[in-house]
Amino acid sequence: MADAPLRKVDVREKAISAAGAAFISAVIVNPLDVAKTRLQAQEAGVSYQPACAMEGSGLFKVSIDGRCPPACPRSSMAGVPPECPPTGQRYRGTFDVMRRVVNEEGFLRLWRGLNASLAISIPTVGIYLPCYDLLREELVLYSEENSLELKPYAPLLAGSIARSVAVVVCSPLELAKTRMQAQVDPRTGKLPGVLAVLRSVNNMYGVDGGQLQGIRIMWTGVGAQLARDVPFSAICWSVLEPARNFALEAAGSVPDIGRVLGANFVAGMFAGGLAAAATCPLDVIKTWRQIETDPVKVMSMTLRRTLGEIWQ
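^ thats the sequence. predicted structure below, dont judge the formating
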């Protein structure tokens, strides 16, 4: 079985394999995604709890969007020393988030937003991967027929275009997932669902600007998401294809299934890690934009302005 020959995989088999891989990866990495979102939201000043404990002043209710100070000021204002939350109330890192979620909210809360993640996987499988394969093959064919030097850039171009389409389609679900992982409903203290989040966004921003405005807000942060995902895909595929080809060549002229899986795993881990590290600041911007609930601020926020706030 280990030496079974490889055969051509058709589109249907690719789609089924991609769907299975998307499901498994979403389940496995969701706890890390929850930790990442809460750490980013904490620095934006958005508390997951409906109230914040402040040293020396007990509990106080936060504003309607659940906003708390992201960091303690280092100097006093008007002669009044700052009142800051004890360090134990702030997340200190990824594993601290996961530990506290399990202890304070329950083990299953690590999979908060999983339903939205799985829903996002559908357009990812149905649009992103098939579009990438089709565009890459067409670019390679066009390059060969016209004696152009586009073949090395085919993964970069195909990945960027395919990811752009997928991001625009599933942006409302990404917005819902981010808010589900970062916030509770400040009025009820309960965890919102996907439809509840999207309905609240539509109702909140559609009051003054009409239904069209409410629908438009569902794509909040799509610019930041494109700025993150398009470079991510470009870097990932540009590194992945050569790395995978190199690994397959090293495996021999007739590699077996185990070696192919190993080559794909190593190449994917290396390319994905490199792309994630390069685009992490843009991921922070996306989270900050999507967890903002002040209608006025949402309408005035831009990629540059959000970056300026983070930099300060």
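The chain has one domain: 13-71+85-311.
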